[in-house]
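Bug report

Summary: structure tokens for Probable sugar-binding periplasmic protein differ between web form and batch submission.
Environment: batch mode, default settings.
Steps: 1) Submit the sequence below via batch. 2) Compare with the web form result.

Sequence submitted:
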Amino acid sequence: MKPPRHALAAAALAAAALLPATAQPPLKAEVIHWWTSGGESAAVKTLAEAYRAQGGVWVDTAVALGEQARSVAINRIAGGNPPTAAQFNTTQQFRDIVDQGMLNNVDAVAQRDGWDKFLPETVLQAIKVKGHYYAAPVDIHNMTWFWYSRAAFRKAGIAAEPRSFDELFAALDKLKAAGLVPLAHGGQPWQDGIVFTATLAHYGGRELYLKVFRDRDPKAILGEDFKKVLLAFKRLQGYTDKGSPGRNWNDATALLINGRAGVQIMGDWVKGEFAQARQEAGKDYGCSPGFGPNAPYIVQGDVMVFPKTDKPDQIKAQQLLASVITQPATQVAFSIKKGSIPIRTDVDASKMDICAQMGVAAMKDKSRQLGNGEIYITPDQNGALQDVLTGYWNRNVPVEKVQKDIVNALKS
């Protein structure tokens, strides 16, 4: 005997009421990024896990090298097959695609979650364009940390970590005399640029740094103080080894991990490699964001941008991702693996290592914060500057010519 039609209709409605979640497919987010080293891969997994925990599906598209990953993302957007999100640095790198209307903003998330209340001004300046939020900040890095191998220092008879550039050069001399690689460096233009930035900030000082990057002041660039910075930068090149050209940054870090090299000047993402090798800050390696308690803290970092789409499910996926990666718990979990510090100061940093805690303390002192050079100059200007610096690093070029070339490279 068949049940009456009204009973079948009622049963169907009841069944539908029990399954509201299955009616909505999960929010799928394809994310293009360049986090491919061991420490970086461990870090990006924390983002994926946090996104999945809040109902999303993370589709991982890792592309080695930042320039290549950004190129793939831009080509995909221009070709009409955009990812949900793509990694860029906290700089002007994505300003052109904002101006071209190629990105969605995430104003709704930023306003709801109060980004203006916890983001540093240097980060806001990068992600906020004409009043709209076009990127979600993932982390804060300082690109100019000084890293020390405790094993190498012991072998070279160095009792204390350097507290000035003069002491740094003295330590490099001792490492060289002990038959070690004094300065572990990857001879790639962006890495040369990091050593230059560190030298300008910590040897030249805050005022000269801003005159060069922010003001692009020809008088300062052609001046005697900047000449001294360039000579100190070139002097550092003499402490690298023959295997330096073309070396990846994480391979340079490996030289510190195995005690073959003493010093590396690199961003705090290197801590991910130390963590993978089960080395501990303050025990196996030392770290310093600069010299002295008031040393400039160079603010760099990573963001996610959200390619233009009018598909409702993709817009929802973008907004969920922007919210998830900026939440306090995600921030701490990611930073512990990545070596960065959280974008916000209202988090519990007690479980983070001593280097990270130095960074968190520095970020609470606004007088120490400096934007990285790429916040002040365009990608084209930065590329021209890197060409000049790498040419000077690798060849015998008169310092006066380098000064003039830098003036030309930084012209608007």
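Above is the batch result. After comparison, the two runs are identical; trailing whitespace caused the diff. The two ends are 85 Å apart (CA to CA). Confidence is low (pLDDT under 50) at residues 1-22.
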